[in-house]
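Structure first, sequence second, as always.
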């Protein structure tokens, strides 16, 4: 594998330069003004989308799966996925072997969903990591504008051996033991997470400590503060981001509309010259992800 790319964009003009997304250092925090955001996406026809079906009649007694798909603007398989994962109302009857719903049931449910076009913004920024020790906040709660009482973090953990790629990102031998945290970030009361991520930590650092206990999440100050409690304060954060299409798992977890991209961010945290965390990746719906970067040209 080649070097990990960190350059995201080249800014044209007399002061043309390449900026990485993002490198944070406590000594030069707070400089610069350069913003790039993703607020919407072009919805293109996805395979199986029922675009050629007329909009269903809201006064009809029942809607079939095809009607529901046409109303939502998604494919039949997407509706089946929602139903199979319990992410939509259960069918209210079966007619001629077809599942059916009252139109009002679907319309009201859809109004309550975190629609891909009206999701609250998640403004990912280097400044979000500047959290005093003990403060009840994380980079995510600041990015999403969520107070601690309304923050929910779901965490599943597993122990694995590093792949060659992860070993290179950590600068450790292949098959080094790692703790993996699969994280879903919520605003309480919302069905879909605002963000998801897969954080990797060195087992030699965290095994047997509270950091490895998923029941300790959410942790005030996030991973940065966890490293401080282990005696390895974070001195640099390096991030690289890209827009891409989601995996099937990501689309299901974030409840994305068909054709919606994601903003995916690879993060490495350093303590001195040592990599102490690799987050591969932080994944934010493309319709709500906003990336902010700053560069001081003075």
């Amino acid at each position: 594998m080649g070097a990990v790319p960190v350059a995201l964009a080249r800014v044209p003009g007399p002061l043309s330069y390449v900026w990485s997304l993002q490198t944070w250092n406590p000594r030069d925090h707070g400089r610069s003004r350069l913003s790039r955001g993703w607020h919407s996406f072009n919805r293109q026809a996805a395979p199986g989308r029922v675009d050629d079906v007329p909009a269903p009649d809201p006064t009809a007694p029942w809607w079939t799966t095809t009607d529901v798909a046409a109303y939502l603007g998604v494919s039949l398989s997407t509706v089946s996925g929602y139903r199979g994962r319990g992410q939509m109302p259960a069918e209210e009857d079966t007619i001629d072997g077809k599942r059916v719903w009252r139109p009002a049931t679907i319309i009201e449910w859809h109004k309550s969903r975190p629609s891909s076009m009206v999701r609250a913004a998640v403004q990912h920024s280097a400044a979000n990591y500047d959290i005093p020790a003990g403060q009840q906040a994380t980079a995510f709660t600041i990015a999403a504008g969520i107070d601690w009482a309304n923050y929910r973090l779901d965490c599943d953990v597993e122990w694995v051996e590093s792949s060659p790629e992860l070993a290179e990102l950590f600068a450790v031998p292949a098959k080094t033991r790692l703790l993996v945290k699969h994280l879903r970030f919520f605003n309480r009361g919302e069905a879909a997470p605002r963000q998801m991520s897969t954080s990797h930590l060195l087992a030699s650092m965290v095994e047997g400590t509270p950091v490895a206990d998923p029941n300790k999440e959410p942790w005030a100050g996030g991973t940065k503060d966890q490293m401080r409690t282990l005696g390895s304060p974070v001195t640099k954060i390096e991030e690289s981001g890209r827009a891409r299409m989601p995996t099937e798992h990501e689309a299901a977890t974030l409840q994305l509309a068909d054709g919606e991209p994601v903003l995916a961010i690879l993060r490495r945290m350093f303590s001195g010259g040592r990599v102490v965390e690799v987050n591969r990746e932080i994944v934010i719906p493309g319709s709500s992800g906003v990336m902010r970067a700053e560069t001081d040209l003075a």
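Margin note: The first helix runs from residue 65 to 72.
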